[in-house]
Write a structure and sequence with these properties.
31% helix, 7 helices, alpha/beta, six-stranded parallel sheet
């Protein structure tokens, strides 16, 4: 028998995160392109980001036929948040600057690269990247390298730069509650044995 799910956050009703999800305004528009394999992932942080930001949209797929329309947002400059040799570090935007349409692929690194490969229009966007050395709060898995963040963490960090001094930390509250809930479910001893810093 399956557990009843919250229709909003898609978590089991007993672990609903809705009271922790903020409703934040941003000048930056965030377009999340999620690989289908992430949709039912227990820690779907892209969904949390989309729910917490009023100016965000989450689209699930591999080939995005509607991409030209999604990227053509009058008054916005589209930028792909993805590392690469040609990626420029994000910088604060003055109120007079045109706002950014921040396009964020969501999936494992391999799946995110596949999204770029299958959508040449996406791969052709000017790339931006986060400052190096950010430490993930995602204590349930080892980061593949320094600066590897969950999707919601990357979005928060990007918005903190683009819209400084506005804070977007509230977006991380449901994420941290989700992590805590997973640790409680697995048991402190199991967490220490498998995930705590060595």
């Amino acid at each position: 028998m399956s557990r009843i799910q919250c229709p909003h956050c898609h978590r089991p009703q007993s672990h609903c995160l809705c009271p922790l999800i903020p409703s934040l305004d941003s000048r930056t528009r965030v377009l999340l392109l999620q690989h289908p394999s992430e949709v039912n992932h227990a820690l779907n942080t892209a969904r949390l980001a989309a729910l917490g930001l009023n100016n965000a949209e989450l689209i699930v797929g591999e080939v995005f036929e509607d991409l030209p329309r999604l990227l053509d947002q009058p008054g916005y400059q589209a930028r792909l948040l993805f590392p690469g040799d040609e990626a420029l570090p994000l910088q604060a935007r003055a109120p007079s600057d045109e706002p950014i349409l921040l396009v964020v692929p969501d999936g494992t690194w391999r799946k995110a690269r596949k999204l770029l490969h299958l959508n040449p229009l996406l791969a052709a966007l000017p790339r931006v990247t986060l400052a190096e050395g950010a430490v993930s709060r995602y204590r349930l898995r080892k980061a593949p390298g320094p600066g590897a963040l969950s999707t919601v963490e990357a979005i928060v960090q990007a918005l903190q730069v683009l819209e400084a001094p506005v804070s977007f930390e509230l977006l991380l509250r449901p994420f941290e509650a989700l992590i805590e809930g997973q640790i409680v479910a697995m048991g402190t001893e199991t967490f220490r044995r498998n995930h705590a810093e060595k």
